[in-house]
Amino acid sequence: MRHTFLRILLVSSIAAACSRGDAAQRDAKPSTPAPTPGTAGGALAGSVVRDSISDRADRGRITGDANAKVWLIMASDFQCPFCKQWHDVAFQGIVQDYVQKGKIQVAFLNFPLGQHQNALPAAEAAMCAGVQNKFWPLHEGLFATQTKWDTSKTPTRLFDSLATAAGANMTVYKECVAKHLTLPLIEADRDRARQQGAQSTPTFIIVPGGQVLTGADANLRGALDAALAKVGASSKKP
């Protein structure tokens, strides 16, 4: 059973990442206690599945076996070129080797940076699609077409076409976007990240353990394998 309202702890970011100045920084370890089951450890908090717009959008940005004990939480910006780089090079491999084999769950945390003019509209498009369980098709489409909309003055035209291709109910989708119905969840994502010192994307957190890695060149496989070994899950499924 999926719970709602992703709560994670993030820290400062490093090289191969988009930041407020796109500056490279060093690796950082959590300066706050690692998330624990029932909060970030289950990646989600609460004991009842609710059905508000935010609840559905929240559940929509999670993928993987609900029984998996290890989480990969990605703080990302759809307009960040380093996020696209990581997505294009590494994401599908993580999905094939970890998600599809039932080893981990993956959750997307929105962290649109201020200097990226279309990052917030892109996040709203993805989360409004997520209300209809279409977040991941939009996630793929947004990164695949990033260079077509990143400097566009009318990006919503392309976003609408991606939502249409994903099979979203466009009346519901457009109302969600027009009324900014998922904006509170996106802002909450970003605020939590900022409060913990995150300054760049992509940033990743592995739960349990609370290990934080940042940048397109982050060694996520090593961190995931270590976390799986700790929970005894690395050999559960072939």
The global form is: globular
Helix and strand sequence: EEEHEEHEHHHHHHEEEH
Mean pLDDT: 81
Radius of gyration: 17 Å
**Ends distance:** 24 Å
Helix content: 40-55%
With strands numbered from the N-terminus, the spatial order across the biggest sheet is 4-6-5-8-9
Q: How many separate helices?
A: 9
CATH superfamily: Glutaredoxin
Described by strand count, sense and barrel closure, the largest sheet is: 5 strands, mixed
Question: What is the C-level CATH assignment?
Answer: Alpha Beta
Number of strands: 9
Name of the CATH architecture: 3-Layer(aba) Sandwich
| Count of all domains | 1
Structural class: alpha+beta
Query: In what range is the share of β-strand residues?
Result: 5-15%
Output the CATH topology. Glutaredoxin
